């Protein structure tokens, strides 16, 4: 089973109420070959919501208590991101995911880059909270940009 970010399958669950549809990912969900997750919704957020970024590090640092996820207005939403990450982990474990494709740049799902915590549009190398947790638990997480490199068997 493949686990994918819900927004990549067309669900309008991003912070601003939009999606980032990748047709092939949506098709895999329709064929019951992929399952959607949105760690932010699992953590208790609604759509739309205020943008948030990791301040003071990366998702790994958030899990270690050395960085925080802060909304644009300054609210600390770290606990919701951590809760969502652990709920996503439970799902990934339950379905015995073989591949995980999450949305790049997200403070939850980024696997290569995330925004730098200054709400300036600048990015840094690093991963989001959910990606960091999944990788810590031994799962391979890739972005939608790397999705095309997967060799998927039926």
Q: Find the count of extended strands (DSSP E, 2+ residues).
A: 8
The largest sheet has its strands arranged as 2-1-5-8
Average pLDDT for all residues: 96
In terms of structural class, how would the helical and strand content be classed?
alpha/beta
Q: N-to-C terminal Cα separation, in Å?
A: 10 Å
Number of domains: 1
Structural topology:
Layout: E1 2-5, H1 23-30, E2 34-37, H2 39-42, E3 52-55, H3 59-63, E4 68-71, H4 78-94, E5 99-102, E6 113-115, E7 123-125, H5 129-136, E8 141-143
Parallel strand pairs: 1-2, 1-5, 5-8
Antiparallel strand pairs: 3-4, 6-7
Keywords, please?
154 residues; alpha/beta; four-stranded parallel sheet; two-stranded antiparallel ribbon; globular
Structure write-up:
- This protein is an alpha/beta fold.
- It has one domain (2-148).
- The protein is built from five helices and eight strands.
- The protein has a four-stranded parallel beta sheet, with helices on both faces.
- The protein is globular, with a radius of gyration of 14 Å.
- It starts with a strand and ends in an 11-residue tail after the last strand.
- 43% of the residues are buried.
- The mean pLDDT is 96.
